[in-house]
Design brief:
- The protein has 164 residues and is mainly alpha-helical.
- It is 57% helix and 0% strand.
- The protein contains seven helices and no strands.
Length: 164
């Protein structure tokens, strides 16, 4: 059965793909090129994995921690998501924009952790599923009934007059 060709994201998913390759190496029935096609990776990646596997077995293909340690624990990240979902207004800001500085302040107030570099906040938010977006600006005086009336009554009449 052919695995899906979605790009793995987590270290666990990447490791699982390498372990699948190791199992295929052990069977010895497929070429490295065939394994690469099956797993949706480059021939070079499989060659590197094979070299490591021959030198150290499946343990050599195990995931190893890399990068900086996260500043928030998993339960704190879940709590942060709930706080962010409440919106900036619930935390004292008068508009609906989450800025990196605001998120940093929120994290500091609730968890006692302050990010020194805004890029760390951005990476955290991206990992949690947030993206950079600016809300559509809407006038506070916006009258939905008047807008609907204009679209359904005024505009059709004006359109008819201009086409005659």
């Amino acid at each position: 059965m052919r695995p899906e060709h979605r790009t793995p994201r987590s270290p666990e998913q990447l490791e699982q793909r390498r372990m699948t390759a190791a199992a295929l190496f052990e069977q010895g029935h497929l070429s490295q090129a065939a394994i690469a096609r099956l797993l949706g990776v480059s021939d070079q990646a499989v060659s590197t994995w094979h070299t490591k596997w021959r030198a150290g077995g499946t343990q050599a293909l195990a995931a190893r921690p890399h990068g900086a340690a996260t500043l928030l624990e998993a339960d704190q990240e879940r709590h942060l998501l709930r706080l962010l979902d409440q919106g900036p207004g619930a935390h004292g800001w008068d508009d609906q924009r989450w800025t990196l500085a605001r998120v940093n302040r929120l994290i500091d107030e609730h968890f006692g952790v302050r990010f020194a570099d805004p890029s760390g906040i951005w990476r955290l938010l991206r990992r949690l599923g947030y993206s950079w977006q600016v809300p559509a600006a809407r006038a506070a005086e916006r009258d939905e009934e008047e807008i609907t009336h204009w679209h359904t009554e005024v505009w059709p009449q004006a359109k008819r007059r201009s086409s005659s």
